[in-house]
From TrEMBL:
This is Fads2a. The lineage of its organism: Eukaryota, Metazoa, Ecdysozoa, Arthropoda, Crustacea. Keywords: Heme, Iron, Membrane, Metal-binding, Transmembrane, Transmembrane helix. One of its GO terms (biological process) is lipid metabolic process. The chain crosses the membrane at residues 145-164, 170-189, 251-268, 288-305, 310-330.
Length: 442
């Protein structure tokens, strides 16, 4: 459902009275990472620079020196990176380093509504976790590495076994192993460049694109019109509370979505191949990994057609399982903030993340479950560059910060989030009271 024309100044598009942005995102609904980036450059309007809060910086000479890898700075040139800078850097050192590349102050208000006040929730949380991470480190623990590499090995062995035996059943299990391995690998592409993030590319999901669509869009502007994980799913999954949703969109998702889930990433891969051929998308080496996987299967399979069928079974299984986990993990329920709902009066970025995320009680406390199901999701959104294996150690500081700011924190069950997904798709009215962690009346 394409948004109807409206008045950009009033923020009313497709009957949504936006509360999140001063200007409705250009190119909405976004379907590709290039489209999202080009729209953000237009909306942020900072020329050839990078904006952090109300200052402009020229980081061109720093791109090759950036400890996290050059990609983060390459793709964000010409945009406001305030949320990315704050959430990626926990220590104070990057703030000092940034001054070397200062260009000028800027008086134009940020399009983003979020704040990062020194005495606010998010900055306070970062100060509390610094000494903890200084002791433990923020990178992968040996347990995290063992689980990630173990899942990769399981995927390879199951794929090999299914191919030599021409077993469709084993191909399904290989697809499940691929799903768990890929979800785990998502932990690694949030971090500085490392070879394990390329496990993600063994699926039909390129890590380079997901660093934009997931890490830079979804993580920073969760459940808003600027979250491409919302807009790219339209019109089949309409999660924003639009009053003009049709009956099928509201109530028939559980009927048609399985077929869409099965083919969504295959179609996206074909589209990417066409865009590369047409010169719209640059060819990257890691794009070949999934096709190399098919090539190896063809070499050891009795026939190419059998290898192709097994390959498709693996990746269709992956698509179905991955999307089912991803869309019910943390973000969709009528009690969770979606663009159009009333935002809290204090738009601290950390507090707004709490409003857009819920935690599943079943996943907490077990690192394996956390890594394979987007677990410890609240802390992951608040501190995305911290390895999942370190998040459990940060709960005391997080809960202490919640108590200091009178923010009750509670868990949901996974079944309630599964049901909540369909309830949210049916919702057409906005929440007049912000749906965050509201203090209880005394």
């Amino acid at each position: 459902m394409a948004p109807r024309e409206g008045d950009p100044k009033s923020g009313t598009i497709s009957n949504i009275k936006l509360t999140a942005y001063k200007k409705f995102p250009t190119n909405y609904p976004h379907t590709t990472f290039e489209q999202w980036l080009s729209g953000k450059r237009i909306d942020d309007d900072v020329g050839p620079y990078w904006r952090v809060h109300n200052k402009l910086y020229d980081l061109t000479e720093f791109i090759d020196k950036h400890p996290g890898g050059r990609t983060w700075l390459q793709v964000t040139k010409g945009t406001d990176i305030t949320e990315a800078f704050e959430s990626a850097h926990i220590s104070e050192r990057p703030e000092g380093l940034l001054q070397k590349y200062f260009v000028k102050d800027i008086t134009t208000p940020r399009n983003s509504p979020y704040t990062f006040h020194e005495n606010g929730f998010y900055k306070t949380l970062k100060r509390k976790v610094r000494p903890i991470l200084k002791k433990t480190g923020k990178g992968p623990s040996w347990k995290s590495v063992l689980i990630q590499d173990g899942l990769a090995l399981a995927f390879v062995l199951l794929t090999f076994a299914s191919t030599v035996s021409s077993s469709y059943t084993l191909a399904v299990f290989a697809g499940i192993a691929l799903t768990l391995m890929t979800i785990c690998a998502h932990n690694y592409f949030h971090q500085r460049d490392n070879w394990r993030m390329y496990y993600f590319d063994l699926s039909l999901l390129p890590s380079h694109e997901w660093r934009v669509t997931h890490a830079l869009s979804h993580h920073l502007y969760t459940n808003t019109a600027n979250d491409i994980e919302i807009s790219s799913l339209e019109p089949f999954w309409e999660f924003l509370p639009k009053p003009d949703k049709i009956f099928i969109q509201r109530y028939a998702g559980y009927i048609y979505e399985l077929a869409i889930m099965a083919t969504l990433y295959l179609i996206a891969t074909l589209q990417r191949m066409y865009d590369i051929w047409a010169g719209k998308t640059p060819l990257r080496p890691e794009y070949f990994l999934v096709f190399f996987e098919l090539l190896l299967m063809a070499v050891i399979s009795p026939s190419f057609w059998m290898a192709l069928k097994l390959f498709l079974i693996i990746h269709v299984t992956f698509s179905i399982v991955f999307l089912n986990i991803g869309m019910t993990a943390a973000h969709h329920h009528p009690d969770i903030f979606h663009d159009g709902d009333r935002m809290r009066d204090n738009p601290d970025w950390g507090l707004c993340q709490l409003d857009a995320v819920r935690e599943r009680i079943e996943m907490t406390g077990n690192l394996f479950l956390v890594l394979i199901s987007f677990g410890d999701h609240t802390l992951h959104h608040l501190l995305p560059t911290v390895d999942h294996s370190r998040l459990h150690d940060l709960y005391p500081a997080f809960l202490e910060t919640c108590k200091e700011f009178n923010i009750p924190f509670s868990f949901m069950t996974w079944p309630s989030l599964v049901a909540g997904k369909y309830m949210q798709m049916a919702r057409t009215t906005t929440n007049n009271n912000h749906p965050g962690y509201k203090p209880k009346a005394s």
